[in-house]
Every structure is written in structure tokens, then in C-alpha cells.
Design a protein that fits this description.
The protein is built from four helices and 31 strands. The protein is mostly beta strands and about 450 residues long. The strands form seven sheets. Strands 1, 2, 3, 4, 5, 6 and 7 form a seven-stranded mixed beta sheet that branches. Strands 10-9-8-31 form a four-stranded antiparallel beta sheet, with no helix packed on it. A hairpin with a 5-residue loop joins strand 15 and strand 16. Helix 2 packs parallel to helix 4. The longest helix has 18 residues.
Length: about 450
């Protein structure tokens, strides 16, 4: 699968409202804090072809809803009802109440060329019905259409719809993140979907590649590579495949972060000694400003959502801590005070909280706090090394790498740490970074 195709697949998913959403009687407030029983029978196939796509849709939707932490997913092997219809009146709610279902998700798929979907023969359709099984109310019904190879993206759209109907919050499943993987024997940069599927290699240079970061549009990735021996900074356009060198001064050029408008890249750069934070023109690499000087190593800069402040890690106070500094320059202000080693800050897209990595007695753990440093929450403890936090687009989950199963995998946690799920398999995954497409 080419990078161009991966970028375009999401465009194939067009959501069409079949019937207006009804008054909603279920509202789940916090991911991970409510175990609302949800049943989701397999997608019913209404044509002779398309079983593979129907299975892919259901698998993506079911995994997404499990990862979300909003629901207690009821085991399909325990469903009493089999092969009934999906519309109101076509089935009996008592069969679902018998297994204590609260949210019931029913769906059906039409294959290529079906008159209820797309007579052109190019797209498949899936109708999704969401019910409150306890009351028998239909909460919503909606149709999604897309090309057959976008079946998993249709499944993500289905899950996002269920989440929005039951929580009032838009889902983020089907979005993408980038990460470092060593599956080839070298540290290369990859892009994958929110559920760890559709893995695409961004680099294949056989060198050490680190610290990937998406541009706000999701069309470019910046990263550090040792392919010319020195740790230089590169940017790749995922639409064209073109790669440009952004910073290659002798020494360190690492941990890039794009500004919210994509025009500036912040990075850690060493010039004749310890590394400092620099701002570069994202297109030309020209230096706009050197933000920090002296005081030890400064690394891992990230922009606040308004683009006015940089958050970074520094040794300027002795042990490593997290600081902020205005983009226009000024005196850094310390944010973390718990422990003597805090690094890798990550800002939530809504600008309210940040995550970081702190050293503990058992290794490294992930913490979350308000942007003023208060209300600290420890997401991990006694579960190996947990590092490289990044936020999901809705600011409710933190993804990070963890060695709790032996090899490093990527895990997703609610921001309170209550619900955590493994995203990748196979080991060797680190440094995830989400893309936050412009509105």
C-alpha cells in the first residue's frame, strides 16, 4: 500500500444520515469510569458478496469500542439472539436485556451495486443502528459508504458514531500516528492507524531513525536520522514522497515539533556544546530564533495549542525537569517538581494538560498534570518502563511505549490511568506521535 493511498483512504468514507438521531437517553461522561454493557452482533451481509469487508468492519468497530474504555463489551458467544433484523420491530429487546445489555449496536452491509447503496457498483454501504436496550429506544441510525478496501475505515466510522451518540464526544478512531519500529532490524519510522493496523514504512534507509513528528495537516513527518552518521533532521512529504534536509549542523538535531500552523519547527540542536531549543522555518530550515542558552541540555520541545509557548525538558535546575518558555523568548518557568528526573513532555490538543516521563523506583513511568503543574496523576506503576507519551486528538487518552510484556509495545490509557489496552504486537515499538488534522 502506498503512502498516497493511505492518505486518501479516509476520504472514501462518506457519512450519510439515514434518519435523524432521536432523543438520546444514554450519556457516558468519562472514558474508563463507566462500564456500560454493550453488545454488537456481527455485521449482517445483505448481498452474496462482501463477507470479508463485513468482517473487517465489525472487527475494527469492536476493537475501537473496546479500546475506548467507555463500555463493558459483552462476549458475542453469549448472545441469545441470532440472525434477527436490525431495524426497530425486527427483533426482541428481551433477548438483549436477558444478558444485561445497555447499548445495542446492530448493523447491516450492502455489497457493490446494491440499489439500497450505490448503483454505480463502486462502493459498499453499512447501516448502523444504536439502541438503548434497557428502554427499547432507538438512539440513532446512520449509513456509511466507502470503497471495499476502506472497510476498516468504515468500521472506525461506525465506532466513532456509537461513541458520539452515547457520550456526545466525537471519536478519533481511524486517525493515524507515527512511531519508531525495529521490525526490519533497524530503527525505522512507520505510520499506522489508531488500532495498530495498516502499518506503512516511512523510512527504509537501514540507519537509526528517531523522534518522528507529524505536521498539523498530517501530510508531512519530521524526524532525526543517522543515515549520514550525524543525527540530522529531515522532513518527508507523504503525498509526494519527497524528503528534504531541515537541519544538519554538526552535533545533535533532534526531537522536532511543528507549530500549530505548520510554519515553524522547534527542535533540540547543539552548536559547539550542550543542546538548546531552536525555532526553524519549516520549509527552508532557516533559523528564526534560539530560545534557550546554557543551563544544561534542553530537549523535547512541544508547542502549546495557541502556538505562543514551548514546553521542553531541561537540566538547567540540576536534575531533568519540564519547563515552559514563550515562543518570542524569555525566562524559562519550571513545571514539574515531583522527583528528580522528568522528561518527554507531551501537550494535550485542548491545551489543558501535559504528560511526561518520570523516573521511579521501578524504572520509568508516565504522569499527567494540568498545564500549571497541578493535579498530578500517575498513569503507570510497577509495569516495566513506560515512556514516550503522546495524546489522542480528543485529549482523553495517552499513548505510550511500555515493556510490561517483555518487549516494547505501544499502549493506550485513559488520562486517569484506569483503562489501558495494548495497541501493537510483535515488540520493538517506541516513540509514538499522533497527528491532529486541522479543522
Amino acid at each position: 500500500m502506498t503512502s498516497r493511498l493511505l492518505l486518501c483512504l479516509g476520504l472514501f468514507v462518506a457519512a450519510l444520515q439515514a434518519t435523524p438521531a432521536m432523543a438520546q437517553s444514554i450519556r457516558i461522561r468519562v472514558a474508563g469510569s463507566a462500564d456500560v454493557p454493550l453488545a454488537a452482533p456481527k455485521v449482517q451481509l445483505m448481498t452474496q458478496s462482501g463477507q470479508a469487508q463485513a468482517d473487517q468492519m465489525w472487527d475494527a468497530m469492536y476493537k475501537d469500542l473496546t479500546m475506548s474504555g467507555y463500555f463493558k463489551m459483552l462476549d458475542p458467544s453469549g448472545y441469545v439472539e441470532k440472525d434477527k433484523g436490525v431495524e426497530p420491530g425486527a427483533f426482541d429487546f428481551d433477548a438483549w436485556r436477558l444478558i444485561n445489555t445497555t447499548v445495542l449496536v446492530k448493523s447491516r452491509m450492502y455489497g457493490l451495486g446494491h440499489q439500497a447503496c450505490d448503483r454505480s457498483g463502486k462502493r459498499i454501504c453499512v447501516d448502523v443502528f444504536v439502541y438503548n436496550a434497557e428502554t427499547g429506544d432507538e438512539l440513532s441510525s446512520k449509513q456509511f459508504r466507502g470503497v471495499p478496501r476502506a472497510a476498516r475505515y468504515l468500521g472506525h466510522a461506525m465506532a466513532n458514531h456509537v461513541i458520539e451518540v452515547t457520550t456526545g464526544i466525537k471519536g478519533w478512531f481511524g486517525s493515524r500516528f507515527t512511531a519508531v519500529g525495529n521490525q526490519s532490524g533497524n530503527k525505522e519510522i512507520y505510520v499506522m492507524d489508531s488500532d495498530g493496523q495498516n502499518v506503512l514504512a516511512v523510512t527504509r534507509n537501514g540507519a537509526i531513525n528517531l523522534s518522528p513528528a507529524f505536521s498539523p495537516s498530517g501530510s508531512e513527518i519530521a524526524w532525526t536520522s543517522y543515515k549520514k552518521s550525524n543525527p540530522d533532521l529531515y522532513v518527508k512529504d507523504l503525498r509526494t514522497g519527497a524528503t528534504r534536509t531541515l537541519s544538519n549542523v554538526k552535533g545533535v538535531n533532534t526531537s522536532p515539533a511543528f507549530s500549530p500552523d505548520g510554519s515553524i519547527v522547534a527542535l533540540s540542536r547543539s552548536v559547539g556544546g550542550e543542546s538548546d531549543i531552536f525555532l526553524l522555518n519549516a520549509k527552508t530550515g532557516a533559523v528564526i530564533r534560539q530560545l534557550t542558552t546554557g543551563g544544561g541540555i534542553d530537549v523535547s520541545p512541544v508547542f502549546t495549542p495557541n502556538g505562543k509557548t514551548i514546553v521542553f525538558a531541561s537540566e538547567r535546575g540540576g536534575g531533568a525537569q519540564v519547563y515552559t518558555v514563550p515562543v518570542l523568548g524569555g525566562t524559562p518557568k519550571r513545571l514539574t517538581f515531583t522527583g528528580d528526573f522528568n522528561i518527554d513532555p507531551a501537550l494535550s490538543p485542548d491545551g489543558k494538560r501535559f504528560a511526561w516521563v518520570g523516573r521511579s523506583e521501578g524504572g520509568f513511568d508516565v504522569y499527567v498534570a494540568d498545564l500549571n503543574g497541578r493535579n498530578v496523576v500517575r498513569l503507570t506503576q510497577g509495569q516495566g518502563d513506560n515512556e514516550d507519551p503522546t495524546w489522542t486528538p480528543d485529549s482523553k487518552y495517552v499513548m505510550f511505549s511500555s515493556t510490561r510484556t517483555g518487549r516494547s509495545e505501544l499502549w493506550l490509557s485513559t488520562a486517569d490511568g484506569r483503562h489501558q489496552t495494548q495497541v501493537t504486537k510483535g515488540g520493538g515499538w517506541t516513540q509514538p506521535s499522533w497527528t491532529f488534522p486541522a479543522e
